[in-house]
Amino acid sequence: MESVRREPVPVLRGLVYRHTGFHLPDAAERARLELPSGAATMLIAFAEPIRIGLVSEGESEVFQRTSFLSAGRAIAAIGRHRGRVHGMELTLSHTGAHHILGVRMAELAEGFPTLGEVLGREGELLVEQLASLPSWEARFATLDAYLARRAADSQVQASWQVTRATRLVAAGWSLRDIQRDVGWGERHLRSRFLDQVGMTPKAMARVLRLQTALRAYLSGRNWAQAAVLARYHDQAHLGHDVKAITGLTPGRLAELRRGAPPGSALDRLPGRVTSVLMG
Predict the structure, then answer these.
(1) Angle CA(210)–CA(182)–CA(36) in degrees, nearest 5?
(2) Fewest Cβ atoms nearer than 10 Å: which of 13, 32, 39, 210?
(3) What residues does the HTH araC/xylS-type domain cover (predicted)?
(4) pLDDT tens across 200-227, in order?
């Protein structure tokens, strides 16, 4: 498998985390569990479509997509593909996606909208242009230029209160203290998060707390220690969250990671646990 990663140009820092180009020749069906990580993802595919749906104990709608967006999720998704996989993956901050795409982020959390649905014909032309280019460097440069132009022309800007609140959530502050710090009540903060992040502050806190626990465990701690470090009441509560969010028990998730540390070649972001190969 060919995989090439690049950091975005400086003007996109804080909005975009990373670009990845990938090419996997014809292969048998593969399944990949994508964990919520506190970031938004844009997938731009040049080959076969991917079947993707949310983890669910009951019936869950499965979407067939080539190029699409995933954001505002507080539960894992499973993507399945067969044959050649070729394309690009772009990881953005939620507020960065809000600024660049100019949409209400909660709308992106409803299914997995295509680039055409979000950006119109412009999104479809972008995919065609990127697919026609001869090298990853040319594709990265073209994508950076497109995103920088949209960012410069955007009339949508995340409020400083939401930007600060997301940092405080990541730092483990209580929601009450965050509301006091930014001067907003619970209802208003929740509404603005849905607009600019795509999930509620409580949901984001849950996602990032699980990420803290997984990072601790996969860095060598045991599950009890990971629960303490992530501020769970006890190990049982951590186990419940792992199962509810990923659909796997802690033991099964660890088994499928096969010892890969946080931020490995499998993951979309440094220091986070974003993906698990299901076999």
Answers:
(1) 20
(2) 13
(3) 173-256
(4) 999 999 999 999 999 999 999 999 999 9
β-pair partners for 86:
23
Residue 275 lies in a domain: no
The range of the structural domain enclosing residue 192 comes to 160-246
Q: Which CA distances in Å does 114 have to 77, 122, 252?
A: 16, 12, 32
Tell me the three state secondary structure of residue 64. Answer: strand
Domain-terminating residue out of 134, 153, 172: 153
- Domains of the chain: total: 2
| C-alpha gyration radius of the chain | 18
Name the token pair of 43. 């997938």
**Is 257 a domain residue?**
no
The CA distances from residue 197 to 96, 157, 212, 223, in Å, are 9, 12, 20, 30
- Count Cα neighbours of 258 within 13 Å in the Cβ-side half-sphere: 9
Residues 115 and 42: beta-carbon distance below 8 Å: yes
Q: Cα separation of 33 and 277, whole Å?
A: 6
